[in-house]
Backbone:
């Protein structure tokens, strides 16, 4: 089906961003409301398009829109076009829906910031770029959005760039993302070289012609791209520092939407990964490593936002693992992505609400007993917490258990390893999330007299309540009658044959719940029943110390990439100065030297010049004479 | 009369002119020596025209005269100006271009 509507999804927030950025200070008074309206309007268009899609049969729902012929060079043709199918619409509604809620939240959260207009301009720009990412109908169009969200992320992490550490964090995120972006551009180039096209439909059609090696290469490069954008191992180091941005940014970009772009990319490229089992296995392994990696870091963090960031990393690990399990897992990866978008965004907004009431304190050891002072924040955060640790009937229970179950069902050693990792991750998740909730809302108060904790205004808790409702109900809605799975079926084409069940759903759920209970119990014993010191204890095991330092990821990057890189650039600089500059300078010196020598012949005496002319003429005549004779 | 003799005269005049340019300091004399060299060349042209039996050399000689006339106009003006400013017509005194 062809429609002219999808472009408005992108155009509205882009227009808002342009008005706010070009309008300057004149728009200060109404800019935030305008931006929120643009985002809400985009959501409205998305909802209307959903109703159109719902009125069609499942195989005819995809909406395409051709915009213009973008590149036409020889056989290389790329049309700028949009593709709104069952997968895209999930993202569109998530981005614009959660995005609008976070716009509303930010009106209150950023009300004291004199640069609020610029903040909303960037937020609107992010929404537009993210929508372009999920709506592009070719890898090249996706790439434009991919770079756009990277830029928006950079601008928003460094929003308070008057602090040098924040500016550095923004740069770190940008550079880590560049590594991933290189993977994506290489994947596009390989796809064009082997398949002759870069559109999703074209690649899907021609995927049979390419060799498995080429497809594996494309798959691995796409995985590199996903690890960069989604903060997966080994490019995960930037996400913790990205918490330097304002909390709504952390909620929208670094929890709900942008960091899940990697999952979208892999799910969108399902036809490539299904034809390249090695790349698919690599995806699953990266997901399993990251989900444990993030969970371990989450246990050691005292900064509430960094603990949540580690949790995001871990939860995206689950999604990547799900996407790496093949046709059986795509739908559950997307489902976990959507439920995670609700509960993690809600919890980040909760964390922002706590910080708002506690003079921007982020250290959880300086919180404690806040549930009496912030009942709504506690309730919404608590619902998000129940959702993330997977207590039935909250959202995480449906989505996460399904991924664990599918992991086991892939069978063999692979299935057991991946499934066990996911189960272990669930236990650790329960531990660190319980720790966060207890340290923040329960126990004795540990803040000093200067803090006056209070509930946030309605504009802040309203969105939190809506997101909490989503984290309560979304899991059930998505799984009821396999709703999301059937919805996504035309895009990801799940295998018809039912795979052998290694573990039945009931056993997986019981196992997961037992492990979650153990995790929660340990956290209660450690943090609720015993006193929590206000300063992180120093006499801890070496493992805790390593976990506090993000499992040495920065040290590793510094030792392996940064130092040798600097040595290399220093060497190149020396080579440049001595060899290349040296050659240029030597030529210049020769010119100067020869000039100095020849200068002596310029005496200024007319008669000596005449003498030279006469001698030259005689020499010329002599030369001609010698040649002719 | 043998045409080659004119050429000998021409070579002689040219040499006298060239030596004069190199050796003499007075700008007027140097100038006259230059004229001498030009006219030596003219004599050669006319002689070659005679030897070859066509008019090309004669035509070139006219051109040379025109150029010489222009040169005299410009050159004498310069010499007079230099003389006015320095009270000297010596070409060695006008060596400021070096600096």
Residues:
């Amino acid at each position: 089906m062809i429609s002219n509507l999808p472009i408005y999804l992108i155009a509205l927030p882009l227009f808002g961003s342009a008005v706010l950025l070009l309008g300057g200070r004149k728009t200060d008074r109404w800019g935030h409301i305008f931006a929120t309206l643009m985002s809400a309007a985009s959501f409205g268009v998305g909802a209307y398009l959903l109703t159109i899609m719902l009125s069609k049969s499942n195989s005819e729902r995809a909406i395409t829109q051709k915009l213009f012929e973008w590149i036409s060079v020889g056989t290389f043709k790329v049309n700028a076009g949009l593709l709104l199918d069952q997968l895209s619409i999930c993202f569109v509604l998530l981005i614009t829906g959660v995005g609008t809620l976070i716009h509303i939240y930010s009106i209150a959260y950023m009300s004291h910031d004199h640069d609020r207009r610029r903040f909303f301009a960037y937020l609107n720009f992010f929404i537009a770029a993210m929508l372009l990412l999920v709506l592009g109908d070719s890898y090249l169009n996706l790439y434009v959005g991919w770079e756009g969200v990277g830029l928006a992320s950079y601008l928003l992490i460094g929003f308070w760039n008057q602090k040098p550490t924040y500016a550095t964090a923004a740069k770190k995120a940008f550079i880590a993302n560049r590594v991933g972006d290189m993977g994506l551009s290489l994947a596009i180039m390989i796809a064009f070289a082997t398949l002759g096209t870069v559109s999703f439909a074209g690649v899907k059609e021609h995927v049979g012609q390419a060799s498995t090696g080429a497809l594996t290469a494309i798959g691995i490069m796409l995985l590199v791209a996903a690890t960069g954008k989604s903060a997966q191992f080994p490019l995960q180091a930037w996400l913790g520092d990205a918490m330097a941005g304002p909390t709504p940014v952390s909620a929208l970009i670094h929890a709900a939407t942008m960091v899940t772009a990697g999952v979208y990319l892999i799910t969108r490229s399902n036809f490539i990964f299904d034809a390249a089992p090695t790349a698919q296995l690599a995806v699953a392994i990266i997901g399993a490593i990251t989900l444990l990696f993030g969970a371990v870091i989450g246990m050691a963090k005292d900064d509430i936002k960094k603990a949540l960031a580690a949790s995001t990393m871990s939860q995206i690990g689950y999604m990547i693992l799900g996407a790496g399990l093949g046709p059986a897992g795509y739908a559950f990866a997307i489902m976990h992505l959507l439920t995670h978008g609700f509960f993690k965004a809600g919890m980040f907004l909760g964390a922002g609400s706590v910080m708002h009431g506690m003079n921007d304190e982020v250290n959880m050891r300086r919180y404690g007993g806040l549930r009496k002072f912030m009942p709504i924040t506690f309730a919404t955060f608590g619902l998000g917490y129940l959702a993330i640790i997977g207590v039935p009937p909250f959202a995480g229970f449906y989505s996460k258990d399904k991924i664990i179950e599918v992991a086991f069902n892939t069978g063999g050693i692979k299935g057991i390893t991946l499934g066990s990792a996911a189960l272990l991750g669930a236990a650790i998740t329960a531990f660190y999330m319980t720790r966060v909730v207890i340290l923040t809302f329960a126990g004795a108060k540990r803040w000093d007299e200067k803090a006056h904790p209070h509930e946030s205004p309605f504009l802040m808790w309203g969105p939190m309540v809506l997101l909490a409702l989503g984290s309560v109900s979304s899991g059930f809605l998505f799984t009821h009658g396999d709703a999301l799975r059937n919805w996504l079926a035309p895009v990801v084409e799940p295998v018809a044959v039912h795979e052998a069940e290694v573990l039945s759903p009931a056993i997986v759920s019981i196992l997961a719940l037992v492990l979650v209970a153990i995790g929660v119990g340990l956290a209660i014993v450690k943090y609720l029943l015993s006193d929590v010191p206000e300063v992180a204890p120093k006499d801890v095991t070496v493992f805790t110390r390593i976990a506090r330092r993000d499992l040495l990821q920065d040290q590793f990057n510094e030792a392996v990439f940064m130092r040798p890189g600097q040595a290399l650039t220093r060497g190149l600089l020396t080579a440049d100065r001595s060899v290349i500059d040296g050659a240029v300078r030597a030529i210049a010196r020769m010119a100067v030297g020869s000039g100095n020598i020849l200068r002596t012949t310029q005496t200024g005496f007319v008669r000596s010049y005449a003498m030279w002319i006469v001698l030259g003429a005689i020499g010329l005549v002599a030369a001609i004479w010698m040649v002719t004779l | 009369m043998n045409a080659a003799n004119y050429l000998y005269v021409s070579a002689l005049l040219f040499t006298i002119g060239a030596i004069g340019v190199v050796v003499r300091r007075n700008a007027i004399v140097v100038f006259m020596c230059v004229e001498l060299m030009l006219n030596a060349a003219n004599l050669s042209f006319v002689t070659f025209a005679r030897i070859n039996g066509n008019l090309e050399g004669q035509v070139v000689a006219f051109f040379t005269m025109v150029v010489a006339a222009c040169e005299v106009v410009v050159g004498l003006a310069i010499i007079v100006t230099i003389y006015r400013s320095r009270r000297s017509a010596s070409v060695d005194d006008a060596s400021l271009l070096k600096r």
User: Anything to note?
Assistant: The mean pLDDT of chain A is 87. Chain A touches chain B at residues 602-607, 610-611, 614 (CB under 8 Å).
